Amino acid sequence: MTARTQSPLLAAPGRRAEEVGPSIKQRLAARGLDGVTLLVLPGALVLVALFLYPFLYGFILSFEPKEGGMFSNYARFFSDSYLYNTIWTTLRLAIPVTLLNLLLAIPVAFRVRLMRHQRLLTTILILPITLGTVLVAEGMLFYFGAQGWFSRSLMALHITSAPLKLTNSYVGVFLSLLITGFPFTFLLTLSYVTGIDPSLEQAAATLGAGPRARFRHVFLPLLLPGLAITFCLSFVQAYSVFPSAVLVGEPARATRVISIAAYHAAFEEYDYSMASAIAMIMGATQLLVVVLVLASRRFFYRGPVAGAKG
Asked: Which of the chain's ends, N or C, has fewer CB atoms near its CB within 10 Å?
């Protein structure tokens, strides 16, 4: 009887040790390294291979100029007006295009969210994304060129006496960026607009708020965080303009953007170190604008954004 009562007690410490001591799998899972986490590894490896390694390689290469000291490439860029003016030229294209796309996308998104055939209209609006920048630029040359349908129609109607110069100029690149960038901006804006709870608008209307008051006091505060992110993503897309600036612009003068300067250094001068330095400056300029936009959100709205996506 005593042996029977003592055997469970003697075995209890062993069982307790097995129960208390977690396995290696449990320890890794407690630190977030489980089977689900391992699924992230392929994406992380692709990110390192396609972004992190090229960025670090280009960053180091930018400090290894053909001639001069460590910072010679950057000194050369900011001492040559033909080079540093490309920053202003690119900003002069990217910022107005992004702002105009936002201003156009907001009312269209508000209208589309109330339509019955929303998917059909959305598909039509995002069609330029499927065409690509080069195909859009080629179509613009045929339509907006000096001998294109647009100029011929205006001259046939005696609205103008000479062809309009809408291509191979700043206007051509602006229109190309507007056409290719609007679908992207519209989709992002539509996702934020449709994410707002309709009961908020209904409550404001019940309290006597008109359409303008509802937009200003209900929709706009909730949309501002999302619109800031939309602006940043659309700006980065427009800032990296290259095909449009070459095909429908004036790459030697009016539309010589910073990406053309990097291409010229890499593939015409074969100075990959200088091209890497220009790419780093290009990335720093984009990052500066994005940081300023995201930091400015707190000056416009500091309340909760639970009623909207993002």
From this structure: N
CB 140 within 8 A of CB 167: yes
CA distance 25 to 19: 14
Within its chain, how far is the Cα of 250 from the centroid? 25
**C-alpha pair distances (Å), 270 with each of 51, 58, 60, 293:** 22, 15, 17, 36
Higher pLDDT, 41 or 3: 41
* pLDDT-based confidence at residue 302 (cuts at 50, 70, 90): low
Q: Which alpha helices (DSSP H) does 126-268 contain, by range?
A: 127-131, 133-144, 149-156, 170-194, 198-206, 211-214, 220-239, 243-247, 258-267
1 by DSSP, 3-state: which? coil
Q: How confident is the model at residue 3 (pLDDT cuts 50, 70, 90)?
A: very low
Give residue-wise pLDDT tens across range 100-159. 999 999 999 998 888 877 788 788 877 878 888 888 888 898 888 888 888 888 888 888
Distance from the Cα of residue 41 to its chain's centroid: 24
d(C-alpha 134, C-alpha 112), whole Å: 28
Among the listed residues 213, 255, 224, the one whose alpha carbon sits nearest the alpha carbon of residue 102: 224
Whether the Cβ atoms of residue 168 and residue 250 lie closer than 8 Å to each other: yes
Distance CA 198, CA 205 (A): 11
The per-residue pLDDT for range 42-52, each reduced to its tens digit, is 888 888 888 88
Token pair 């998104």 in the structure block, residue? 109
- Residues in CB range of 287: below 8 A, 6 or more apart: none
Q: Which CATH superfamily is domain 72-300 in?
A: MetI-like (1.10.3720.10)
Q: Kindly state the tokens that stand for 267.
A: 């593939």
Residue 292, φ and ψ in degrees, nearest 5:
-65, -40
Residue with tokens 């201003």: 103
Domain residue ranges in the chain: 24-61, 72-300
Q: Model pTM?
A: 0.81
